[in-house]
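A reminder before we start the practical. When you read a complex entry, don't treat the lines as separate problems. The point of joint prediction is that each chain is placed relative to the others, so the output describes one connected object in space. Small molecules and nucleic acid strands, if listed, are placed in the same frame. In the example below there are two entries. Take a minute to note the order of the lines before looking further.
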Amino acid sequence: MPNNLSAKDGLRIIETASIPKGAVVINGLPDVGLVGLLAASHIISSLNLQEVGAIESDLLPPMIVLHGGLPKAPMRIFSGHGLAILISETVIPSSLIRPLANGLVDWARSKSTKLMLSLGGMAVANRQDIESPKVFAALSSKDLESMLRGSAEVLEEGYIVGAYGLLLSRCCEASVPAITLLTQSHYNYPDPEAAGAALNAVNVILGLKVDVSDLLKRGEEIRLRSKDMMHRTHEEMSKMNKSHEYDLPPLYG
Amino acid sequence: MSSEPRIDTSPSHVSGWNAATACIQPLYNLFVAAGEVVLTVDLPYVDQKRVKLSCPTKDSFEILAETTRKITFKDLGLKHRHGEFTCYHAIVRMPVPVDEKRATKKFKRGLLEVHIPRVK
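Here is the predicted structure of the whole assembly.
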């Protein structure tokens, strides 16, 4: 019987199988270049993680997605190898972002989450000229910098617009250790190479050995398959003023 | 249904897969800079030699790019939709006057980049 763990702000986190405490939670939500979604999906398939839950909300479009002939919620949680990975196969409406951040962090705290690791993209204008995308990290606490072990450069100043910004802030308030990895990527084109670079950083941070070669080899197929999702994500990013991330903060220090 | 090509300033919201014409509408982006308009188009499964650019009207660019292989919905795991696709096609309206004759293009990592000088 599904266990409805959270119903705050109309958000329901449903566990269909037990998710162990103390896991690392990885978020792969649709965002710039679909970097997080592509990277998280690749971890799920590479490590053969099992579907263990879903997130439902009245603020999501009334839809399901069929996989293997069975109806699935578009936002699902997969677990195994000490990980709990959240992905979304639908765009997250901006009205859901705040309840999602609040609900996820409350849930993560109840699960004694070891680390909340969010994967996203950082748009750069000359992306096609960059052979090896750089990875940047925003941290909920300075103590986490040692976990990066050179895999990412710490972001000191700037804006993060969308779910990952609020998640990081809420994690900071709730003392849930959190790292948001932002990898140089195309803004509105699916970017499997950037997802591969993000995964290399995840491998270093978590000590995993996820092979990214298949992700890179299937790059063209992934770009084509993700085209429609990227288009809808682009529309939602425009609504939430994602371009604000290019702005300079007026204060410093 | 009209046979006139549709002119968009952004990709179609409804569906970018036109089985009747075997064409896929690509993702594209326009950036208006001080001296030029930069058009980028994402073209997976395309060889740069198969990319054709033209200007059907003074204020638009047409991109036609043949794919290196036939793409089917079945290849992408969909059994209930039928269609084979052999090209990308889009007509993009320029938001400002441009000198289309001086346009330059480059193709790298499956991404077409067209620089079109603005008319002052």
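Discuss with your neighbour: The domain at 17-117 of chain B is CATH 2.60.40.790 (Immunoglobulin-like). What might explain this?
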